[in-house]
Design goal:
Helix 4 packs antiparallel against helix 5, helix 9 packs parallel to helix 12 and helix 13 packs antiparallel against helix 14. The chain is built from 15 helices and no strands. It has 243 residues and is mainly α.
Length: 243
């Protein structure tokens, strides 16, 4: 089913947005999402390839984003994340949102928003300590996003996350272990300064007696020892020194 084209008007009400979502749904998309482990209990099957440009059409609006989030509908929640105003999103609101997390997809988009809102330092330790699977995943998704996108931050600020990564490498839950691995790899690929410490930790984990830690370590070692990645980091380091 083709995606219904939104009207050429950015002043949508929440009911109009929900009507667009319902009209744009696809049973085939729903089936595909379920295969990728996305929670489809309250979903219509509108892909992100349609939601992202629609979000740009809508523009950012804090109050409307809150209303969309509160519907509990997958597509509305994604649009809320795409159209929230990061500067107006408080740590308290982020905590309230985390209580609603029910899918890795929602978590990963929310993690991006929480970092953009400036809450990396406050929320990562708190979310990592939370026993809820998707909340803990959020902490490490935030680290991964921050390592890539917070380019002006000093590397030392990400080096201090490695002990936190190590602490949770024995959590066997699928969506946690993959996020911990993701965070470790992204820290290691940020710079040559971080590459060595991250690789050292990965090698230690690869030799662990714990099955989950060993998987995280071996997968990270495989990526961090890739020659193309190493050469890219060396080139990046040389360019930085020139300036």
């Amino acid at each position: 089913m083709p995606v219904r084209r939104p009207p050429q008007n950015a002043d949508y009400t929440v009911p109009e947005i929900l009507a667009w979502i319902e009209a744009s749904g696809s049973a085939d998309n729903l089936a595909g999402m379920a295969r990728f482990g996305i929670n489809t209990d309250k979903a219509y099957g509108v892909g992100n390839a349609a939601l992202r440009p629609f979000g740009k059409t809508l523009g950012r609006n804090h109050e409307r984003a809150e209303q969309l989030w509160q519907t509990g509908m997958r597509e509305a929640m994604i649009l809320a994340l795409f159209t929230e105003e990061p500067r107006r999103l408080s740590p308290a609101q982020a905590r309230d949102m985390a209580a609603d997390f029910n899918s890795w997809e929602i978590v990963d988009h929310a993690a991006d928003l929480f970092v953009d809102a400036g809450h990396l330092d406050e929320l990562v330790p708190e979310f990592a300590a939370d026993e809820r699977e998707f909340v803990r995943r959020t902490a490490f998704a935030m680290i991964a996003w921050g390592a890539v996108h917070l380019k002006k931050r000093d590397d030392a600020e990400f080096l201090r996350f490695l002990p936190l990564v190590e602490q949770y490498t024995t959590d066997p839950r699928n969506f946690v272990k993959k996020a911990v691995n993701w965070a470790l790899r992204q820290i290691g690929k940020r710079s040559m300064t971080l590459h060595g410490p991250a690789l050292t930790l990965a090698e230690q984990l690869a030799a662990s007696d714990d099955t989950t830690a060993r998987w995280i370590g071996k997968d990270a070692v495989r990526e961090l020892t890739d020659e193309k990645i190493r050469q890219r980091l060396i080139s990046k380091q040389l360019q930085t020194r020139r300036y």
